[in-house]
Amino acid sequence: MxxxxxGQFHARxxxxxxxxxxxxxxxxxxxxxxxxxxxxxxxxAIGDRVNQLEDGKFMLVQSQIExxxxxxxxxxxxxxxxxxxxx
Length: 87
Known about the structure:
The protein has 87 residues and is mostly beta strands. It has one domain (2-86). 8% of the residues lie in helices and 47% in strands. The chain has one helix and six strands; from the N terminus they run E-E-E-E-E-E-H. A six-stranded antiparallel β-barrel has the order 1-2-3-4-5-6. The longest helix is centred in the last third of the chain and has 7 residues, at 80-86. The N and C termini lie far apart (49 Å). The model has no long low-confidence stretch (mean pLDDT 83).
């Protein structure tokens, strides 16, 4: 079975601590080569397992701490003046 890192994001607990969560997809090819749907798993960057409860909600397996996924923020766009100054 192979696991491939397909994403990472930050999540917060109720006390505001931030956790770095890694998303993996695992798949086991079938003998006939048709494959199987990949299974998505989550782990903290330090290796602790994480279960997905619902969209955007997760729970640390060992400590039972509930986490909420942080919304992704797009990179700030530079204004024309900032671009000229940087040049």
